[in-house]
Amino acid sequence: MEQYFDFIVLGGGSAGYATARTIHEDGGTVALIDGAEELGGLCILRGCMPSKTLIYSAEILHLAQKGSTFGFEGNKPKADIQAMHVRKKEVIAEFADYRKEQLEDGRFSLFRSYGHFLDATTVQLSDGSILRSDKILISTGSKVKVPNLPGLSEVNYKTSDDVLDLEYVPPECVVLGGGVVACELAQFLSRIGTRVTMLQRSPQLVKEFPREASRTLQNAMESEGLDLQLGVDFKNFSQIDEGCTEVLYGHEGKEKKIKTSFLFLALGREPATGSLNLEKAGVQLLPSGHVQTNSFQQTTCPHIYAAGDCAGPHEIVHVAIKQGETAALHAMGRMVRPMKYDSLLSVVFTDPQLAIVGLMPIELKKRGIDFSSASFPFDDHGKSILMDAKYGYVAVHADRKTGVVLGAECVGKDAGELIHSLSVAVGVNATVHDLVNADWYHPTLSEIWTYPLEDLAEEIMSPDQKK
């Protein structure tokens, strides 16, 4: 059996759905292929929504345990992990059910199957069916990465999926990694009562973020009792018995061993493209394993596109959606701007949260851009002090000649919310003078931006002053 469609989408996550929806709105017929046990994609089922639900529960628990700080007494609350798990399932069920309805509402031909390429225009499904199209999108997402480390593949380890489905509190845990997922879930485990040791190969946590942001997070996590060992060299993993794994590693010039009953593998994710037979379609991969694409999401076979985690370079939901929409519009011959990442927004949902937008000083220096920076700490800001949220800082980077905001950093309480004021500024090319002229209410957390903005506005001459 063979069927022809205007567009074939491989994968029904955020990027795939955005593409399919956009093609349908333009009048095209779409075959959407997704053989996962549950529809919805990584973000809804095993990523953003379940993790942030649990992280928020742990944050409320952490605040409640600090009663004496805020002037009240009571029995010290403890985590009810099963209740947290039930709430998490209820929350994500709403999103998953809605996405399932969207995928099954008749706008697309949904195939609950897996597909692989026979050639550049032909996809074969698991049941043998053949689908053909002159336009195809690859949006198959990512999977947990298991690095080629001695013995790692032979021992019992847990992944983020296992942590998100926990119905008990592990007494102790060894976390491999120090990236976004590792930090968010390590702090979650610590706050619900697990003794956590983190082993990170890089000399800093969340190495994609500025060093000061990483250092601030490290200080905060260590103050909560997490044992962070950075710059380690993994030597070997061995299974002592069914319930005990041993990790042999080098750290600070010494060889060390640690045993654990809960080894959490959080060394990143990798594109899930291995079963697609991409070589049959002439689609090439980058050294990172991501599908090679241009700024319109075209692969090395121009009528085949890729979007989302399998394409990179940033595995973030709002980027995946924009990539999917860009691919769809370009494929249908519509006017669309190419993908650019100079105004990229990124958030880490630890406590303190880390958030950046636009270009950071390292990149600005690489590009030879003349810029000025100013910062201000949370521990000298009224609202954050009264909230006992003293870890962190804000920083603004602006063009030294024009005052246009090029980037910003926020590390602190609710940084993921606060960064959006500066995200708008970066997105519309606002100047520090524009932002200084806005109203910033006192006392609020957002008001903290006024301090670096005022410093930069005094340093950089405004257009009116130049006249």
Describe this structure in a few short sentences:
By secondary structure, this protein is α/β, with parallel strands linked by helices.
Layout: helices, strands, pairs:
Elements: E1 2-4, E2 7-10, H1 14-25, E3 30-33, H2 42-46, H3 48-64, H4 67-70, H5 81-103, E4 109-111, E5 115-119, E6 122-125, E7 130-132, E8 136-138, E9 142-144, H6 160-164, E10 172-176, H7 180-191, E11 195-200, H8 211-223, E12 227-230, E13 233-241, E14 244-251, E15 254-260, E16 263-265, E17 269-271, H9 278-281, E18 304-306, H10 317-331, E19 345-348, E20 353-358, H11 361-366, E21 371-377, H12 382-386, E22 393-399, E23 405-412, H13 415-427, H14 432-436, H15 450-459, H16 463-466
Parallel strand pairs: 1-7, 2-3, 2-8, 3-4, 8-18, 10-11, 10-16, 11-12
Antiparallel strand pairs: 5-6, 6-7, 9-17, 13-14, 14-15, 19-20, 20-23, 21-22, 22-23
Would you mind describing this structure in some detail?
The chain has 467 residues and is α/β, with parallel strands linked by helices. The protein has three domains: 2-39 and 104-144 and 270-331, FAD/NAD(P)-binding domain (3-Layer(bba) Sandwich), CATH 3.50.50.60; 152-267, 3-Layer(bba) Sandwich (FAD/NAD(P)-binding domain), CATH 3.50.50; 345-466, Enolase-like, domain 1 (2-Layer Sandwich). Helices cover 33% and strands 24% of the residues. The chain has a five-stranded parallel sheet with strand order 4-3-2-8-18, with helices on one face. A five-stranded antiparallel sheet has the order 19-20-23-22-21, with helices on both faces. The chain has a four-stranded mixed sheet with strand order 1-7-6-5. Strand 6 and strand 7 (130-132) form a beta hairpin. Helix 1 (14-25) packs parallel to helix 10 and helix 3 packs antiparallel against helix 5 (81-103). The longest helix is centred in the N-terminal third of the chain and has 23 residues, at 81-103. It is globular. The protein starts with a strand and ends with a helix.
